[in-house]
Amino acid sequence: MKVLIVARTRISNRVCVGGLDADNTSLRLYEKGWTYPPASSPYQVGQVWEMTLLARPSLQPPHLEDVAVTTARHLSTVRDLAASLRKRVVPWAGGVTALFEGKLRFTANSRGYIEAPNLPSRSTGFWTPDRDLTHADIDGKAYYRCGGYELSYVGVDQPIPTIPAGTLVRVSLARWWKPRDAAPDFPERCYLQLSGWYL
User: How far apart are CA 80 and CA 168, in angstroms?
Assistant: First the structure.
């Protein structure tokens, strides 16, 4: 099937690669052994590939997009990715609280997360924010602020100072996690993150 690459995000020394198939179904691409692709992976945002994909045998909601690439052949590169995506996807619009079907909760630092059993139907999506997103470095990590909320930035591109309101951006939910020193009854969470933007 044809797959459009829409995101590359940092996962330690590897990358998480997001794509859309011809039906605009969101995909998260893995190697054959269910490992993330290496940082040297040839898949670049805006490229179209012909791929043979294997569905993951067991999925843990809300991360339902996982597929393994068994064969891949580069076909082309989309010239105006932002315009192409706007024709293909239906983004969330408005503020941060509109994301992921309104099921986000927020920490004291105004960082979004989801928690069982109140789960959205997917872990990736597109968004057109109703105000500018402004870059901030916090404790050595990149974030974007939006109306009092903070979104961790995990894309591979260098942050830009401002992502203008109305820009199409991609957001996702990180894998289930809790601090190592958390109390036994502290629930795992999936935290909101910003994957990239399309100008």
Answer: 13
Instruction: Say yes or no: 40 and 57 in one domain.
Output: yes
Q: What is the pLDDT of residues 121-142, one digit of tens each?
A: 999 999 999 999 999 999 999 9
* Residue in the block written with tokens 């294997």: 54
State the pLDDT at residue 12.
Answer: 85
Q: How far apart are CA 182 and CA 101, in angstroms?
A: 28
175-196 per-position pLDDT tens digit: 999 999 989 999 999 999 999 9
> 4, 20 in Cβ contact below 8 A?
yes
Could you identify the residue written with the tokens 């490229």? Answer: 47
Closest by CA to 29, choosing from 39, 15, 40, 48, is 15
Same domain (yes/no): 8, 97: no
Is the pLDDT score of 38 beyond 90? yes
For tokens 């974007």, name the residue: 144
Of 194, 142, 134, 141, which Cα lies nearest the Cα of 168? 194
pTM over 0.90: yes
Burial class of residue 25, CB neighbours in 10 A (0-12, 13-18, 19+): middle
Tell me: do 78 and 42 sit in the same domain: yes
